[in-house]
Design brief:
72% of the residues lie in helices and 0% in strands. It has helices spanning 2-13, 16-32, 39-65, 71-91, 96-113, 136-155, 162-185, 197-201, 203-220, 229-247, 255-261, 265-277.
Protein backbone atom coordinates (compact mmCIF):
# COMPACT_ATOMS: atom_id res chain seq x y z
CA UNK A 1 0.00 0.00 0.00
CA UNK A 2 2.86 2.36 0.88
CA UNK A 3 4.50 1.76 -2.51
CA UNK A 4 1.20 2.24 -4.37
CA UNK A 5 0.65 5.58 -2.67
CA UNK A 6 4.14 6.76 -3.61
CA UNK A 7 3.63 5.67 -7.20
CA UNK A 8 0.28 7.46 -7.33
CA UNK A 9 1.82 10.59 -5.81
CA UNK A 10 4.62 10.50 -8.37
CA UNK A 11 2.09 9.96 -11.18
CA UNK A 12 0.21 13.09 -10.06
CA UNK A 13 3.08 15.32 -8.93
CA UNK A 14 5.17 14.64 -12.02
CA UNK A 15 2.23 15.92 -14.15
CA UNK A 16 1.73 12.64 -16.02
CA UNK A 17 -1.96 12.65 -15.10
CA UNK A 18 -2.64 16.21 -16.19
CA UNK A 19 -0.68 15.62 -19.42
CA UNK A 20 -2.90 12.62 -20.22
CA UNK A 21 -5.92 14.84 -19.57
CA UNK A 22 -4.63 17.43 -22.03
CA UNK A 23 -4.08 14.67 -24.62
CA UNK A 24 -7.60 13.37 -23.93
CA UNK A 25 -9.05 16.76 -24.84
CA UNK A 26 -7.02 16.76 -28.06
CA UNK A 27 -8.50 13.34 -28.84
CA UNK A 28 -12.03 14.70 -28.20
CA UNK A 29 -11.41 17.46 -30.75
CA UNK A 30 -10.23 14.86 -33.26
CA UNK A 31 -13.36 12.78 -32.64
CA UNK A 32 -15.73 15.75 -32.91
CA UNK A 33 -14.22 16.98 -36.18
CA UNK A 34 -13.45 13.57 -37.71
CA UNK A 35 -9.69 14.04 -37.67
CA UNK A 36 -7.35 11.04 -37.72
CA UNK A 37 -5.32 10.69 -34.54
CA UNK A 38 -1.84 12.07 -35.12
CA UNK A 39 0.43 10.23 -32.69
CA UNK A 40 3.29 12.63 -33.31
CA UNK A 41 1.05 15.52 -32.25
CA UNK A 42 -0.19 13.62 -29.21
CA UNK A 43 3.40 12.78 -28.25
CA UNK A 44 4.33 16.42 -28.60
CA UNK A 45 1.36 17.57 -26.50
CA UNK A 46 2.08 14.99 -23.79
CA UNK A 47 5.77 15.84 -23.37
CA UNK A 48 5.10 19.57 -23.72
CA UNK A 49 2.44 19.36 -21.00
CA UNK A 50 4.70 17.49 -18.57
CA UNK A 51 7.61 19.84 -19.27
CA UNK A 52 5.48 22.98 -19.09
CA UNK A 53 3.56 22.05 -15.95
CA UNK A 54 6.65 20.92 -14.06
CA UNK A 55 8.49 24.06 -15.13
CA UNK A 56 5.67 26.23 -13.79
CA UNK A 57 5.20 24.23 -10.57
CA UNK A 58 8.82 23.67 -9.59
CA UNK A 59 10.81 26.50 -11.15
CA UNK A 60 10.78 28.63 -7.98
CA UNK A 61 11.57 25.70 -5.70
CA UNK A 62 14.47 24.51 -7.83
CA UNK A 63 15.79 28.04 -8.24
CA UNK A 64 16.06 28.85 -4.55
CA UNK A 65 16.55 25.42 -2.95
CA UNK A 66 18.46 23.42 -5.57
CA UNK A 67 21.18 22.35 -3.14
CA UNK A 68 18.79 20.77 -0.68
CA UNK A 69 15.95 19.51 -2.82
CA UNK A 70 13.82 16.70 -1.43
CA UNK A 71 14.44 13.31 -3.02
CA UNK A 72 11.00 13.25 -4.65
CA UNK A 73 11.65 16.59 -6.33
CA UNK A 74 15.02 15.45 -7.61
CA UNK A 75 13.35 12.42 -9.16
CA UNK A 76 10.74 14.67 -10.80
CA UNK A 77 13.53 16.91 -12.11
CA UNK A 78 15.25 13.92 -13.74
CA UNK A 79 11.93 12.71 -15.14
CA UNK A 80 11.18 16.21 -16.47
CA UNK A 81 14.57 16.31 -18.17
CA UNK A 82 13.84 13.11 -20.09
CA UNK A 83 10.39 14.45 -20.97
CA UNK A 84 12.09 17.58 -22.30
CA UNK A 85 14.27 15.36 -24.49
CA UNK A 86 11.08 13.63 -25.69
CA UNK A 87 9.62 17.05 -26.41
CA UNK A 88 12.67 17.92 -28.52
CA UNK A 89 12.29 14.70 -30.52
CA UNK A 90 8.60 15.34 -31.29
CA UNK A 91 9.27 19.02 -32.01
CA UNK A 92 11.45 17.92 -34.92
CA UNK A 93 8.45 16.05 -36.31
CA UNK A 94 6.20 19.13 -36.28
CA UNK A 95 5.78 21.31 -39.39
CA UNK A 96 6.98 24.90 -39.13
CA UNK A 97 3.44 26.31 -39.30
CA UNK A 98 2.42 24.25 -36.27
CA UNK A 99 5.49 25.34 -34.32
CA UNK A 100 4.72 29.01 -35.00
CA UNK A 101 1.30 28.56 -33.41
CA UNK A 102 2.69 26.53 -30.49
CA UNK A 103 5.31 29.23 -29.83
CA UNK A 104 2.56 31.62 -28.73
CA UNK A 105 1.54 29.32 -25.89
CA UNK A 106 5.16 28.52 -25.10
CA UNK A 107 5.77 32.22 -24.47
CA UNK A 108 2.66 32.43 -22.25
CA UNK A 109 3.85 29.42 -20.23
CA UNK A 110 7.33 30.93 -19.89
CA UNK A 111 6.05 34.24 -18.56
CA UNK A 112 3.51 32.43 -16.40
CA UNK A 113 6.45 31.27 -14.26
CA UNK A 114 9.27 33.77 -14.92
CA UNK A 115 9.38 37.26 -13.31
CA UNK A 116 9.21 39.98 -15.97
CA UNK A 117 6.89 42.86 -14.96
CA UNK A 118 7.05 45.61 -12.27
CA UNK A 119 6.16 44.55 -8.72
CA UNK A 120 3.10 46.79 -8.52
CA UNK A 121 1.15 44.34 -10.73
CA UNK A 122 1.64 41.37 -8.41
CA UNK A 123 0.47 39.94 -5.11
CA UNK A 124 4.00 38.84 -4.14
CA UNK A 125 7.62 39.14 -5.23
CA UNK A 126 7.44 36.47 -7.93
CA UNK A 127 6.41 39.01 -10.60
CA UNK A 128 5.03 36.44 -13.04
CA UNK A 129 1.65 36.07 -14.73
CA UNK A 130 0.68 33.42 -12.22
CA UNK A 131 0.83 35.99 -9.43
CA UNK A 132 -1.44 38.60 -10.98
CA UNK A 133 -4.61 38.66 -8.90
CA UNK A 134 -7.57 36.89 -10.53
CA UNK A 135 -5.76 36.01 -13.77
CA UNK A 136 -4.49 32.47 -13.18
CA UNK A 137 -7.62 30.46 -14.04
CA UNK A 138 -8.24 32.39 -17.27
CA UNK A 139 -4.66 31.94 -18.50
CA UNK A 140 -4.89 28.18 -17.92
CA UNK A 141 -8.27 27.99 -19.69
CA UNK A 142 -6.94 30.02 -22.63
CA UNK A 143 -3.87 27.80 -23.05
CA UNK A 144 -5.87 24.56 -22.76
CA UNK A 145 -8.42 25.84 -25.29
CA UNK A 146 -5.69 26.85 -27.74
CA UNK A 147 -3.73 23.62 -27.42
CA UNK A 148 -6.61 21.13 -27.31
CA UNK A 149 -8.95 22.69 -29.90
CA UNK A 150 -7.18 24.98 -32.33
CA UNK A 151 -3.80 23.22 -32.41
CA UNK A 152 -4.99 19.82 -33.75
CA UNK A 153 -7.29 21.49 -36.28
CA UNK A 154 -4.68 23.92 -37.58
CA UNK A 155 -2.11 21.10 -37.61
CA UNK A 156 -4.51 19.11 -39.81
CA UNK A 157 -4.86 22.06 -42.19
CA UNK A 158 -8.48 22.78 -41.32
CA UNK A 159 -9.86 26.26 -41.98
CA UNK A 160 -11.29 27.81 -38.83
CA UNK A 161 -15.09 27.67 -38.95
CA UNK A 162 -17.95 28.76 -36.70
CA UNK A 163 -18.16 25.28 -35.15
CA UNK A 164 -14.47 25.41 -34.29
CA UNK A 165 -14.85 28.75 -32.52
CA UNK A 166 -17.83 27.37 -30.59
CA UNK A 167 -15.71 24.35 -29.60
CA UNK A 168 -12.95 26.71 -28.46
CA UNK A 169 -15.41 28.65 -26.29
CA UNK A 170 -16.78 25.42 -24.83
CA UNK A 171 -13.30 24.21 -23.97
CA UNK A 172 -12.50 27.54 -22.31
CA UNK A 173 -15.66 27.25 -20.18
CA UNK A 174 -15.18 23.59 -19.19
CA UNK A 175 -11.57 24.19 -18.13
CA UNK A 176 -12.64 27.09 -15.89
CA UNK A 177 -15.32 24.83 -14.41
CA UNK A 178 -12.76 22.07 -13.82
CA UNK A 179 -10.50 24.56 -12.04
CA UNK A 180 -13.15 25.52 -9.47
CA UNK A 181 -12.71 22.45 -7.18
CA UNK A 182 -8.97 23.25 -7.12
CA UNK A 183 -9.67 26.87 -6.19
CA UNK A 184 -12.12 25.85 -3.47
CA UNK A 185 -9.60 23.41 -1.98
CA UNK A 186 -6.79 25.99 -2.14
CA UNK A 187 -8.91 28.63 -0.43
CA UNK A 188 -7.29 27.75 2.89
CA UNK A 189 -3.78 28.19 1.46
CA UNK A 190 -3.99 31.01 -1.11
CA UNK A 191 -3.07 34.56 -0.26
CA UNK A 192 -6.17 36.75 -0.20
CA UNK A 193 -4.41 39.01 -2.70
CA UNK A 194 -4.59 36.30 -5.37
CA UNK A 195 -8.27 37.21 -5.82
CA UNK A 196 -9.32 33.69 -6.80
CA UNK A 197 -12.96 33.13 -7.70
CA UNK A 198 -13.93 31.64 -4.28
CA UNK A 199 -12.13 34.51 -2.54
CA UNK A 200 -14.08 37.05 -4.57
CA UNK A 201 -17.58 35.57 -4.44
CA UNK A 202 -17.48 32.82 -1.80
CA UNK A 203 -17.72 29.03 -2.05
CA UNK A 204 -21.51 28.79 -2.59
CA UNK A 205 -21.53 31.34 -5.39
CA UNK A 206 -18.47 29.70 -6.91
CA UNK A 207 -20.40 26.43 -7.12
CA UNK A 208 -23.36 28.27 -8.65
CA UNK A 209 -21.01 29.89 -11.16
CA UNK A 210 -19.64 26.44 -12.04
CA UNK A 211 -23.15 25.14 -12.71
CA UNK A 212 -23.92 28.17 -14.91
CA UNK A 213 -20.67 27.70 -16.85
CA UNK A 214 -21.55 24.07 -17.46
CA UNK A 215 -25.05 25.03 -18.58
CA UNK A 216 -23.62 27.44 -21.16
CA UNK A 217 -21.03 24.80 -22.11
CA UNK A 218 -23.83 22.31 -22.81
CA UNK A 219 -26.15 24.74 -24.62
CA UNK A 220 -23.33 25.89 -26.91
CA UNK A 221 -23.37 22.40 -28.43
CA UNK A 222 -26.71 23.18 -30.10
CA UNK A 223 -25.29 26.22 -31.90
CA UNK A 224 -23.02 24.03 -34.01
CA UNK A 225 -23.88 23.45 -37.64
CA UNK A 226 -22.84 19.81 -37.39
CA UNK A 227 -24.27 18.04 -34.36
CA UNK A 228 -24.66 14.32 -33.78
CA UNK A 229 -26.51 12.51 -30.96
CA UNK A 230 -23.18 11.20 -29.66
CA UNK A 231 -21.78 14.73 -29.40
CA UNK A 232 -24.60 16.21 -27.36
CA UNK A 233 -24.99 13.14 -25.13
CA UNK A 234 -21.25 13.09 -24.32
CA UNK A 235 -21.40 16.82 -23.61
CA UNK A 236 -24.36 16.26 -21.27
CA UNK A 237 -22.56 13.45 -19.42
CA UNK A 238 -19.40 15.51 -18.97
CA UNK A 239 -21.46 18.47 -17.76
CA UNK A 240 -23.28 16.33 -15.19
CA UNK A 241 -20.14 14.63 -13.87
CA UNK A 242 -18.22 17.91 -13.65
CA UNK A 243 -21.19 19.57 -11.96
CA UNK A 244 -21.33 16.88 -9.29
CA UNK A 245 -17.61 17.26 -8.56
CA UNK A 246 -18.06 21.02 -8.23
CA UNK A 247 -21.09 20.74 -5.94
CA UNK A 248 -19.37 18.21 -3.64
CA UNK A 249 -16.04 20.05 -3.51
CA UNK A 250 -14.94 21.63 -0.22
CA UNK A 251 -11.93 23.21 1.39
CA UNK A 252 -10.89 20.12 3.40
CA UNK A 253 -11.40 17.61 0.60
CA UNK A 254 -8.92 14.79 -0.03
CA UNK A 255 -5.72 15.73 -1.83
CA UNK A 256 -6.73 13.30 -4.59
CA UNK A 257 -10.23 14.74 -5.08
CA UNK A 258 -9.11 17.41 -7.53
CA UNK A 259 -5.59 16.29 -8.43
CA UNK A 260 -6.73 12.83 -9.51
CA UNK A 261 -10.51 12.53 -9.86
CA UNK A 262 -11.35 15.96 -11.28
CA UNK A 263 -8.32 15.77 -13.56
CA UNK A 264 -9.66 12.40 -14.79
CA UNK A 265 -12.82 13.95 -16.29
CA UNK A 266 -11.23 14.55 -19.75
CA UNK A 267 -10.19 10.88 -19.79
CA UNK A 268 -13.76 9.90 -18.81
CA UNK A 269 -14.90 12.15 -21.69
CA UNK A 270 -12.93 10.07 -24.21
CA UNK A 271 -14.22 6.81 -22.73
CA UNK A 272 -17.80 8.12 -22.84
CA UNK A 273 -17.39 9.05 -26.50
CA UNK A 274 -15.98 5.62 -27.38
CA UNK A 275 -18.79 3.88 -25.48
CA UNK A 276 -21.52 5.96 -27.13
CA UNK A 277 -19.96 5.47 -30.56
CA UNK A 278 -19.68 1.70 -30.28
Amino acid sequence: MYLKKHLLDFYINSSIHVALSVCAMVVITCFDFQLPLDWNLLGFVFFASVTGYNFVKYFGIAKFHHRRLATWLKVIQVFSFFCFLGLCVFTLKMPWETLEYIAIFGVITFFYAIPFLPKRFFVDSRQNLRSIGGLKVYIIALVWSGITVFLPLLHAGRTLSFDIYVEGLQRFLIVIALMLPFEIHDLQYDSIKLATIPQQIGVKRTKLLGVLLLLVFFLCEFFKDELTPVMWVETLLVSLVTGLFILFSKEDQSEYYSAFWVESIPIFWVLAYLFLSS
